[in-house]
Design a protein that fits this description.
Radius of gyration: 15 Å
Distance between the termini: 32 Å
């Protein structure tokens, strides 16, 4: 898990967490090009990546999924948007999505960024600043935006 940095609240004080429920912190509109799924501190990076992508007219939705929401994930996988799992951990959501849903036969395009190594193995996360760890694992807002742009360009 990547270390946390100080952050402002995303939800109001009356927010109630429901296990197995996904949330859309930028629910003002639904991104037609891509969806970035994250949780915890990673949601802040996803929101910033959404802002960066918006500057290039790439409409992106952010989904905060603190625990797996099978129903919502199933709906996403039936669409044709790019879905990025951006997790500051060992890829729990990505692994669960692969095990519970037939992601390879969905119409959606799916990509994952997490702290696993190239062979999908857990690795020791060395001491560094939050920003350095994000950069090292390809999880900074800039890198998430670059990955989305590269994947959309591959269409």
């Amino acid at each position: 898990r990547v270390l946390r940095a100080a952050a402002r609240g995303i939800y109001g004080g009356d927010f109630r967490f429901e296990p197995g429920t996904a949330y859309r912190p930028c629910a003002d509109e639904q991104g037609e090009h891509a969806v970035i799924i994250s949780s915890g501190r990673g949601v802040y990076e996803a929101i910033e990546a959404r802002r960066i992508l918006g500057l290039q007219s790439v409409q992106t939705d952010v989904v905060d999924m603190p625990s797996l929401d099978d129903r919502y994930l199933s709906e996403l996988l039936q669409g044709d948007r790019l879905i990025m799992f951006a997790e500051q951990n060992n890829g729990f959501l990505w692994k669960a999505a692969r095990e519970r849903h037939n992601v390879w036969n969905s119409t959606a395009r799916v990509v994952a960024r997490n702290t696993l190594d190239a062979e999908g193995r857990r690795q020791f996360i060395h001491s560094a600043t939050y920003e350095q760890l994000l950069e090292h694992h390809g999880l900074s807002a800039r890198q998430l935006a670059e990955t989305v742009l590269a994947q959309l360009g591959a269409e």
